[in-house]
Automatic annotation (TrEMBL):
GO terms for molecular function: DNA binding. GO terms for biological process: regulation of DNA-templated transcription. It comes from the Bacteria. Signal peptide: none annotated. Pfam families: Arc (PF03869). This is Arc-like DNA binding domain-containing protein.
Length: 87
């Protein structure tokens, strides 16, 4: 059986890598947030990026709903596209 280091190295090779430059002070804020949520800094970054992308989809869906409500229940031509994008 492989030891944990070998398994982790194999898993890491499958992940995409991207170097990020943080503005001054952001790394410390991210480190504190990661510790508070019991995650690694990498996991905290991935979690927050994922949440923001999901929020964008939800905002688009909610805007479409608002447009329908403001139109008296009739979808505008762009509302259908927005609601489909959010699903």
């Amino acid at each position: 059986m492989l030891n944990n280091e070998t398994v982790n190295m194999r898993d890491d090779d499958k992940d995409e890598k991207f170097v990020v430059r943080f503005p001054m002070g952001m790394r410390a804020r991210l480190s504190m947030a990661a510790k508070a949520s019991h995650r690694s800094m990498n996991s905290e970054c991935v979690h927050r990026i994922d949440c923001s992308l999901k929020q964008e989809q939800e905002i688009a869906r909610l805007k479409a709903v608002i447009d329908v409500l403001l139109n008296g229940g009739k979808p505008a031509s762009n509302v259908v596209q927005l609601s489909e994008a959010g699903q």
